[in-house]
C-alpha cells in the first residue's frame, strides 16, 4: 500500500486524487458474496467493475477445464465493487 491507501501498482493508486474521487463517484457500490461469478467470458459487457476491497480470482474455461489466469486485489479493475457504465455492450 502507498500513501493513497491502495496497492501501489493499482489503477486507483496511480490516479491523481481528484481523478480517483471522480471515478469512484461515478459508480454504484455493489457487495457480492464470496464465490459469486461476476463476469463470464463471451457475454456482452454493459459495465466496468472496479474492485475497491477484497480479492477476486480470474479464471478461464476451456471445455471442462478451468484455469487460473490471475488474482486481482483492491484498486484494480476486472468484497465491494463500483459498477461504472461502459458504452458499446461489447463481449468480454
Describe the structure in your own words.
The structure is a single chain. This protein is an alpha+beta fold and 92 residues long. The chain has one domain: Sandwich (Jelly Rolls), CATH 2.60.120. It is built from 2 helices and 5 strands; from the N terminus they run H-H-E-E-E-E-E. A 3-stranded antiparallel β-sheet has the order 1-5-2, with helices on one face. Strands 3-4 form a two-stranded antiparallel ribbon. Strand 3 and strand 4 form a beta hairpin. The N and C termini lie far apart (29 Å). The model has no long low-confidence stretch (mean pLDDT 75).
Summary of the model, kept short:
With 92 residues, this protein is of the alpha+beta class.
Q: Strand count, sense and closure of the main sheet?
A: 3 strands, antiparallel
Q: Spell out the helices and strands N to C.
A: HHEEEEE
- CATH top level is Mainly Beta
CATH topology: Jelly Rolls
Strand content: 35-45%
Number of helices: 2
Q: What structural class results from the helix and strand content?
A: alpha+beta
Strand adjacency order, main sheet: 1-5-2
Q: What assembly state would you assign to the polypeptide chains in this entry?
A: single chain
What helical percentage do the residues reach?
A: 10-25%
How far apart, in Å, are the first and last alpha carbons?
A: 29 Å
Q: What value does the Rg take, in angstroms? A: 14 Å
Count all strands and give the number.
5
Q: Specify the overall morphology.
A: globular
Domain count: 1
InterPro entries: cNMP-bd_dom (IPR000595), cNMP-bd_dom_sf (IPR018490), RmlC-like_jellyroll (IPR014710)
Protein name: Cyclic nucleotide-binding domain-containing protein
Domain Cyclic nucleotide-binding: 11-92
